[in-house]
Amino acid sequence: MPMSTSHCTIITAIAAFFLSAAVTTTSAETLPPYKDDLFSTQKVLQTGDDGASEVIDYDEMRDINGRDQIPQKRVQQKYVSLGIKKLQADETLSLDGVKLDVTRVGPAENAAFTVIFIHGRDGDRRLGANDYSFGGNFNRLKNLTAGNGGVYYSPTVKTFDATGVTAIAGLIRYANAQSPGRPVILSCASMGSQICWGITRDAESVKRLKGMLIMSGVSDPDFAKSPFYKAKLPLWFAHGSRDPVYAATDQQALYEKLHKAKYPTHFTLFQNGNHGTPIRMIDWRRVLNWVLAS
Q: Of 3, 129, 240, 241, which residue is 20 to 30 A from 266 by alpha carbon distance?
């Protein structure tokens, strides 16, 4: 039966209330299952470090051609649920005089938690809001976040330098002000990882963050000097073993250094995966639950 906007608002508010209580107790299962049979049944080839690292089987014929109606462009319909688009809006935020275009999914205020995704080179806010690309994984992220009372932001980053870092620092401050005291999780892909590393050096942003995910990104040899490191906020890495843009070995080396120092970190390697594989294959529910429970 169709629901009115008021019904959707009430349901979102109720979800936010119960999720807020769950976050307070730091349950390992803060976010309930959502299409886990399609997204969370990946074959684990190898685990290490008491489960902190893993190698996951990836096969293009199965995970792209067998999953997409049009390979790399449109996933099969069963992978997406478009009702969540009722909570989606394109906005231009003014953040201390800096204009930032974002796609927001979920409540603008009093969200149970916030997830921010930063695209790579040649991307914009549409990439992280596309329901059908990357195997429907962004649609799942929208439903996991907004469907549980959280808010998801996919901003357009124009430059991957100090200017871009300043814009995202402004978005983090904004999200924190809109939903005081609630977790903020930052995720970055490819060249967007330069924004993540820049944020780790900004003490004010770090105070407002709960954790971070880096997919197919660059490594930061000076990370251990950052406020983020000193705060010991959880950090998850994901990479494809055949990534031709940024070598997986660089991120893996940083992960191993952090794990040795007993830093809260996780590393997922997609065996035979390419540069875009982690965006398609990352299990968002597992990552978000791990960060929220840390």
A: 129
pLDDT confidence tier of residue 10, bands split at 50, 70 and 90: very low
In terms of Cβ atoms closer than 10 Å to its own Cβ (0-12, 13-18, 19+), residue 252 is middle
- 243-251: long-range contacts, CB 8 A cutoff, minimum separation 24: 243/216, 243/273, 243/274, 243/275, 243/277, 244/274, 244/275, 245/190, 245/216, 245/275, 246/190, 246/193, 246/216, 246/217, 246/218, 246/219, 246/275, 250/218, 250/219, 251/214, 251/217, 251/219
How does pLDDT run across 67-111, given as a tens digit for each residue?
999 999 999 999 999 999 999 999 999 999 999 999 999 999 999
- Could you tell me the pTM of the whole model? 0.90
**115: which 2 tokens?**
């997830």
Cα–Cα distance measured from residue 199 to residue 182, given in angstroms and rounded to the nearest whole number:
18
Mean pLDDT, to the nearest integer, of 223-234?
98
Per-residue model confidence as pLDDT tens digits over 109-146: 999 999 999 999 999 999 999 999 999 999 999 999 99
Please tell me whether residue 174 adopts helix, strand or coil conformation: helix
Listed residue (241, 276, 187, 236) closest to 51, CA to CA: 236
Look at residues 294, 110, 101 and name the one whose alpha carbon lies nearest to residue 209: 294
pLDDT exceeds 80 at position 29? no
Per-residue three-class SS string for 236-248: EEEEECCCCCCCH
Got the DSSP string for 178-247? Answer: HSTT--EEEEEEGGGHHHHHHHHT-HHHHHH--EEEEES----TTGGGSHHHHHT--EEEEEETT-SSS-
Q: Is 189 in contact with 120 (CB distance < 8 Å)? A: yes
Closest by alpha carbon to 268, among 212, 189, 220, 214? Answer: 214
SS3 content of the chain, % helix, strand, coil (to 5): 45, 20, 35
